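Our preliminary data section would be incomplete without showing what the modeling component actually yields. Below, a chain of 132 amino acids is followed by its predicted structure, encoded as tokens that our downstream tools consume directly.
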Amino acid sequence: MKNNVKGFTLLEVLVALAVFSVAAIALMRVSESQLRMSQTLEEKTFAHWVALNMLTEMQTGQDWPNIGEQTGKVSMANRDWKVIMKTQSTPVSRVRRVDVSVGIAPKDFTDEMQELTFLTGFIERPMGASAE
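Predicted structure:
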């Protein structure tokens, strides 16, 4: 009588499981990395939008920004953002340069923030605003 039993041995099953587990771990690490990258890109995009909004408000407003540094907090996308605006004079007396740095607001607002975006814009003095 001939034994014609077909199937896998225990060793073959263990090797297959080991190969599968290594592949699954690698796939999970790639997924985790992609998730972190996606979150970082989302944060940078929102921070850039905050900076653009700040500059646009200044460019369309009637206020002439004072030279110096201002720090503020803005809410967008269910997050608080720390905004640092540095206003400088330019060689053209009716134009000022504004540098805007944005990052996620730290819990203690006096702590340093991790800058996510930096944007530079120029503001022209509105008609009727006094020169300083």
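The CA atoms of residues 13 and 91 lie 77 Å apart. The radius of gyration is 28 Å. Preliminary results of this kind motivate Aim 1 of the renewal.
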